[in-house]
Each structure stands twice: as C-alpha cells, then as structure tokens.
Write a structure and sequence with these properties.
The protein has 7 domains: 59 residues, Cadherins (Immunoglobulin-like, Sandwich), CATH 2.60.40.60; 111 residues, Cadherins (Immunoglobulin-like, Sandwich), CATH 2.60.40; 87 residues, Cadherins (Immunoglobulin-like), CATH 2.60.40.60; 102 residues, Cadherins (Immunoglobulin-like); 112 residues, Sandwich (Immunoglobulin-like), CATH 2.60.40.60; 94 residues, Immunoglobulin-like, CATH 2.60.40; 107 residues, Immunoglobulin-like (Sandwich). It has 2 helices and 58 strands. 1% of the residues lie in helices and 44% in strands.
Length: 747
C-alpha cells in the first residue's frame, strides 16, 4: 500500500513536508523574534485520504542568531549635571534593548562614549557604565566643569551587542545633550555671632542649599563637645540654639551634609565656621589680692617702684580688654597726699615726690581703680618704705672646697649649702640675698635657691650630669641684693665664694634618639621592606645590640647590629591597624645595661578585600510566586571606609540566570533580588552574584546566593517536609517544620 504524509500545526507558510520522501523543508526564513517555537503534527494518509498512522508531534525550536541591532529607547537624551558633582555618581541613564535571545551574548549590551563635543581638555569629562548605561562625571570632570566656561555638551553614546567583545557586533548610537548648572552646594562664608546674645533662640545664622529639592540635611560634628549648640532644618537653614560664650570657645567648626531619601550622601560635606565675637562682658581682675612694693627712703623723684598687674578675660588686644589705672586713695596722707603716681595704661607706680622717711611712715596703702570703660575694679597696693641699702652681703667663708658627686645624682638634689649675711634691715630688699653662679657653669647644670628667712643658699643639681661631657666644675658664686646699693657702695670680694664639683663616672644604659618611633606604611608592602632604622647610643661608647619585644604577630624583624627594622610577614590592616612593639637596646659587654623604646606601626589600608554579603546569604520566596516579590541583600567590605561605600551589583552567567532573575540597586550598599517571572519551579537555586567595590584598584566579589522557592506557612515562613523515619511521628501527625529565615520579602 502507498502512503503519503500530511503536515499540520504552526507552519506559518514556511515549513512544509515532501509528499514522497517525508522530509521537512523550509520555503522561507524563520524569525525567532516573531516565533520561537513551532509545534507541528504529522500523520500518514492512504490514497483514499484516510489516516492510517499518527498523528505524531514535532516541536521545532528556532535558534537565535545575531540579526537584530540594539536600539536606544530614545533617539536623543537630555540630562542636567551640577558643577563639582561627585565623580561616579550617575545623573542620567541611557537604555537600549535588543530583540535577540537575552540568554545569549547576542543581547548582551555594552555602552560606550564615542564622541564628546566640545572637548576642551585632554581628559574625558564624562564616563559611562558599560553595563548599566549610567552616565556620570569623571574625576577631571568633577573638577573642571564650569557653566561659565561651557554650559552644554553633546555626547555620542554607542551601544554594541555581543558584550562589545566582537568586531561583528551590531551597534546603535544616540545623542546625549548635557547642561551644566552652577553647583548650589557651596560652603557659606564664615559666620560671626556676638557672644551672650539676649535674643530669643534658636537664631538663624546661615543656610546651605542642595541643587534639587528633597534632600535631607544634617550637621556633623568635627570635634566632640559637651553641648553642640547648632541645628539645621530641612530647608538647609542652620540655627544657633543657645547664647555662646567667647571665653568658653571662640571658633566652632563642623560640617553640613545633604543625603537622599535612602540616607546616602549626595556630595561631600560642607565645612561651616562660626566665629564668636567678643563683647565687653568681663570685669578687670587684680592679679593679687594685695600687691606689695618696696621703695628705699632715698629714692628720687620719678623712680619706678613696681607695676600693678590686672587681667581681663575679654579678647586680647581689643578695646574690650584695654585697662586703665587711676589712684583713688592713699593712706596715710603724710607728709602729703599724692606721693605716688601711676601710669594710666601700664599700671607702673612712680614717685611724685622725694619726701619718703621710714622713721615717719614705714608703709602706705594705696587703692587703685582699674577700668575697661564698662566695668571697674579696685585693687589694693601696699608700699613698704625700707632702709637704704648701704651694706653688702658677706660670705662666711670664701672657699667651700671640692665636692664629689655621682653623675646619676638626681636633678633637684642639694649637694652643698652656703651662707652669706647682710647687715641691712632684715626681711627687706636691702638685706635679702640672691646667689648667682658667675663662672664655671655655662650649661647651667647647677642652681642656687635661697631660704628667705635665713638667707642660706642651697646648691642643687639643675640638669642631668654627664661625666663624658664634663667631669669637673670650678664655680664662682656672687651674693647680691635685689635693691640697688646706695651711691658710693660696691660689691667686693667679700660677696664672692668658690667651690668645685667633681663628677664620678657611672655606667649608663644606652639612650635611644627617641622614646617613641612612629611609622605609617601600606599593608601591601612586600615582605622584607625596610621600615625604619632606630639608633641608640651608649654614653661610654660600648657596642649596642637590638632586639624586639611584644612582636606578637611576628610581622617585624630587626637587624641586631644596625637597628634596621624590616617587615617579616605580610601585614593585614583588617587584623590590626596599630601594631606596637618594644625595641630593646643592650650593651654588648654588659647585658644588664639596656633601655627600651616604643615602635608604633600605623598600617594604612589598601583595597585588598573583595566585597561580601552582610545580609542575604540565604533567601527564600513563597511558591507559587507572585509578581513584584523581592528580597533585600546587603554588601560590606572589610577594608577601611573613608567615605560611604559604593558597591555595584550584577548577576553572573549561567543557564537561565538573567532570564529568570534580576538585581536592582537600592543604594550604595543594598540591592533587591527578584524573580523576573512567576514560572519558576519549587526548588533550591544557586545564583551567581558579582559585587564590585569602588576601591583603587576596584575588587570583585563572586558569590553564590542560595535561594529557596518553597511552600510557605500562613506566617510566610518557608515550609520543609520532614522525612518519615522509624521512631518519628507519621506524616499525618507532623506535616513539617518551619525554617525561619530573617529576610524581608517585598510584596
């Protein structure tokens, strides 16, 4: 019997079957973008047209070829960028689509800036994310864009399929018109506020503006204060909340920030400076409750007696702290009033008459008015009239011999006592004795202090002695009075004495050039890098040997002889960013003689840690899926974050990954993962995720997200059946367990 085939189904006028051989053939071209799958049936008929076999199903999957160029959604884009905007922050997105199979490279798009009109600089002012089409300013553009110089730019943006990796890629272009606007986000001028204002607070003092409405403003303290007397409203107006006191703090420095709704900073913080202006709100203050001067009874007209000192807490070198002095009372007024005058600006007392007589009046009490033109203070002065200084100090002996002391004698220790006497009136400037070393002590290693009651002198060590520098001192001491001698009387050899000091050598420990050595170094330096050379000297000249202590991580080693410190292992700032060790210097021949210095290694960060997930390693969605569900993930980075981190999220390659899933950015650290359709099966999925940071150089983290599509309980928790094992409840008794996953699922 003879049979012939008959074809039916989705032939679309293109697919036919040969009646004799049964071969399927095409009489035209298939187009995957119009129809991806053709479902056909074939059956065998006899000559009478009756079915004898079949029907049999045939499915034809049309394979994609790269026959569709990408197309931009718009033929022209318009965007606005603000002057000095942060580099890398997108201000415009261009988007293209490709009708080819999205699971193949045929539809993987690559964006690039082809031309840049005008281009007044050697560097590109704009950049584009090759994957997302996000356009932002480059580093040079952030600095150089200026609407006064060039307000508009035209970018020719091209998009290629095949991920831009092939010369055969199909392309499309679009124009992007960019307008540069003046950046309103500028630091305001320094604000000046008068202190102790009596106006109602808060008081508006300045304002900052973000370029567009909707920004959230905040203030950031630069230094920690017990009270921070400033606030900002959501119009960017900055207020002072309480009266300020210049004497408490004269200058405040802090920052104003602008953030978007997600809490991400829109640009760099602006520095705000507030200067507190002085007002005259502090009275003069007498330095002493009672100021005492001495004057000899034979002093002449105009002689200086002393200076009255007063202070004012208002700003120095201003009219608010300018003080003027005036004598308002003298007691007694014998032999006459106004015996003394005071310099109005300096407060220096002078004699207006040479009428002082100790036998008539031995002391005067003077009251002085000190004013700053707003406040007035009264200061009391006592002036003692003393006998004339006509007697010189006389030493009890002229030679005190030689004194032997160890070179490690402590500073401040008394090594010798000396005595001179003066026959003038006791307890006055004429009889008080001052001892001074006139010769033999150029470095001032010794000092002599006087007991004011007995005039006894105590010779003390003033500086650390060094046998190697000087082993003997021959000292000449002179005794004088603070009051000048009367005419015709002079100091002579009776007011001079001599003594010697012999310093005995003591074996001293080595001395480092510094007590603390500090070095800053990047964590990625090679092992064996020279970090620093430390140096210690032994006063006796012995050889020094160096060792390290508290080198807990063995990151460093030291050359025993040279003191050179090298890295001995890789450094890791994330493990320890301040590495402290002790350096010991020991005398080679005297092991007991050693000293220690501190070595601080501050390790600076490099971008050596790829991003990782802080939240969202294990996600789930309830089956059956509903449109719009999504789960939040959060990225972090162990490297030092000087500014807010900026991560980019993308899906890796894999079968049906990009056709089944998508990832969308929330902010610099968070993103949403969501299914692209609701036809996903109930099972566990492993989704490759790529996270890039914005370090230099940038690093990429490759992760596998474990996503479970599962049946859920009424509470929205993933439900997993428990297998029935001996000794366990039956399926009817225990239907399952709930797996609690702390994750937000968008609905």
């Amino acid at each position: 019997d003879s049979f012939y085939p008959q074809l039916s189904g989705e032939k679309d006028g293109v697919i036919e079957i040969a009646s004799t051989s049964g071969y399927l053939y095409l009489n035209g071209s298939l187009d995957r973008e119009n129809k991806e799958i053709h479902r056909l049936q074939v059956e065998a008929l006899n000559v009478a047209g009756q079915k004898v076999k079949g029907p049999y199903s045939i499915t034809i999957n049309v394979q994609d070829i790269n026959d569709n160029p990408p197309k931009f959604e718009k033929s022209k884009y318009d965007g606005v960028v603000w002057q000095n905007s942060r580099p890398g922050k997108p201000f415009l997105y261009v988007r293209a689509t490709d009708r080819d199979d999205p699971t193949t490279p045929n539809a993987q798009l690559f964006y690039n800036i082809l031309h840049h009109f005008p281009n007044p600089y050697k560097s590109m002012l704009f950049q584009i994310d090759n994957v997302t089409g996000a356009i932002s300013t480059s580093e040079p553009g952030s600095r150089l864009l200026n609407p006064q110089t060039q307000a508009t730019f035209t970018l020719v943006v091209t998009v290629k399929d095949l991920a831009g990796m092939s010369e055969n890629a199909l392309t499309s272009n679009t124009d992007v018109e960019i307008t540069v606007k003046e950046n309103l986000w500028k630091a305001p001028p320094k604000v000046s506020i008068k202190e102790n204002s009596t106006e109602p607070h808060p008081i508006s003092i300045t304002q900052v503006h973000w370029n567009e409405p909707g920004a959230k403003y905040d203030l950031l303290q630069k230094e920690r204060l017990p009270r921070f007397p400033f606030t900002i409203d959501q119009n960017g107006t900055i207020y002072v909340t309480e009266p300020l006191d210049r004497e408490e703090k004269e200058l405040y420095s802090f920052f104003a920030t602008a953030k978007d709704k997600g809490g991400e900073e829109l640009d760099r913080p602006l520095p705000i400076f507030v200067q507190v202006e002085d007002i005259n709100d502090n009275p003069p203050v007498c330095q002493n409750a009672l100021t005492i001067f001495e004057v000899q009874e034979n002093e002449g007209l105009g002689s200086n007696i002393g200076t009255l000192h007063a202070t004012d807490m208002d700003k120095e070198n201003t009219l608010n702290s300018r003080l003027q002095f005036r004598i308002v009372d003298q007691n007694p007024k014998i032999p006459l009033d106004n015996l003394f005058i005071i310099q109005q600006e300096a407060g220096t007392f002078q004699l207006s008459s040479s009428s002082l007589n100790k036998r008539v009046v031995s002391n005067y009490f003077v009251r002085v008015e000190v004013t700053d033109k707003v406040f007035t203070t009264l200061c009391d002065v006592k002036i003692n009239v003393i006998d004339i200084n006509d007697q010189i100090p006389i030493f009890e002996k002229s030679d005190y011999g030689n004194w032997i002391i160890l070179e490690d004698t402590p500073v401040g220790e008394v090594i010798l006592e000396i005595q001179a006497t003066d026959a003038d009136e006791p307890f006055t400037g004429s009889s008080q004795i001052i001892y001074q070393i006139e010769e033999g002590d150029q470095n001032k290693n010794f000092i002599i202090e006087t007991d004011t009651k007995t005039n006894r002198g105590f010779v003390k060590i003033n500086k650390v002695l060094d046998f190697e520098m000087s082993s003997t001192y021959n000292l000449t001491v002179k005794a004088t009075n603070p009051e000048p001698l009367v005419r015709g009387v002079q100091y002579n050899s009776s007011s001079t004495a001599y003594f010697g000091v012999v310093v005995v050598d003591v074996n001293e420990v080595p001395v480092f050039s510094k007590n603390i050595y500090i070095v800053h170094i990047f964590e990625d330096v090679p092992v064996g890098t020279l970090v620093m050379t430390v140096m210690a000297n032994d006063p006796e000249g012995d050889q020094i040997r160096y060792t390290l202590k508290s080198n807990n991580r063995n990151w460093l080693r030291i050359d025993t002889f040279s003191g050179e410190i090298y890295t001995a292992a890789p450094l890791d700032r994330e493990v320890e960013h301040e590495y402290k060790v002790e350096i010991t210097a020991t005398e080679e021949n005297k092991k007991s003689q050693s000293s220690t210095a501190v070595f601080m290694l501050y390790i600076k960060d490099v971008n050596d840690n790829p991003p990782r997930l802080a939240k969202g390693n294990h996600l789930f969605f309830c089956h059956p899926l509903r449109g719009g569900v999504r789960a939040e993930i959060q990225a972090t980075d162990d490297d030092e974050q000087l500014y807010s981190p900026e991560f980019t999220f993308s899906l890796g390659s894999g079968e049906n990954i990009k056709s089944d899933w998508e990832i969308s950015r929330i902010n610099g650290t968070h993103a949403y993962l969501s299914p692209k359709h609701t036809n996903l099966e109930e099972k566990q999925y492993s989704i490759p995720l790529i996270i890039n940071d914005n370090g230099k150089p940038p690093l990429e983290g490759n992760l596998n997200l474990q996503v479970n599509i599962c049946r859920c309980s009424n509470e929205g928790r993933c439900f997993i059946e428990v297998e029935n094992h001996p000794g366990m409840p039956s399926v009817g008794m225990a239907v399952g367990i709930l797996l609690g996953v702390l994750i937000f699922i968008g609905r």
